[in-house]
Amino acid sequence: MQSWRNSPEHAAPRTASVFPTTQWSVVLAAGDQRPDAAALAIEMICQNYWYPLYAFARRQGFGVDEARDLIQGFFADLLERKAFTKIDRERGRQ
Predict the structure, then answer these.
(1) Is the CB of residue 89 less than 8 Å from the CB of residue 31?
(2) Per-residue pLDDT at 92
């Protein structure tokens, strides 16, 4: 899997420490049974949410490397638990 954390697309929005509006079509696609569709959606989610989560961790007092590791671990955990296949839009905020 490509490292989205180090990709040029990810590096650009350094000022975007606010969480983006949830794009439910992308979130639901991340749980798609078609691996290509799911992988693309997960890539988009990681690109959109990595920096805001990282900035949040930094504001909580974590160092640069520790914050990176925490966020990387968070996404790894979501993928391991196949959390995207269990998403319920009705339980999310709108």
Answers:
(1) no
(2) 66
The confidence band for 1, taking pLDDT boundaries of 50, 70 and 90, is very low
Percent helix, strand, coil in the chain (nearest 5)?
Answer: 65, 0, 35
Of 52, 62, 67, whose CA–CA distance to 16 is shortest?
Answer: 52
Q: Name the nearest CA neighbour of 71 among 59, 56, 86.
A: 56
What b/e string do you get for 55-82 counting C-beta neighbours within 10 Å, with b at 16 or more?
A: bbbbeeebeeeebbebbbeebeeeeeee
Residue partners of 49: CB distance under 8 A and separation at least 6: 19, 20
The amino acid present at 69, given as its one-letter code, is D
Residue with tokens 């350094």: 14
Q: For 34-77, how does the pLDDT look when each residue is reduced to its tens digit (9 = 90+)?
A: 889 899 999 999 999 999 999 999 999 999 999 999 999 999 99
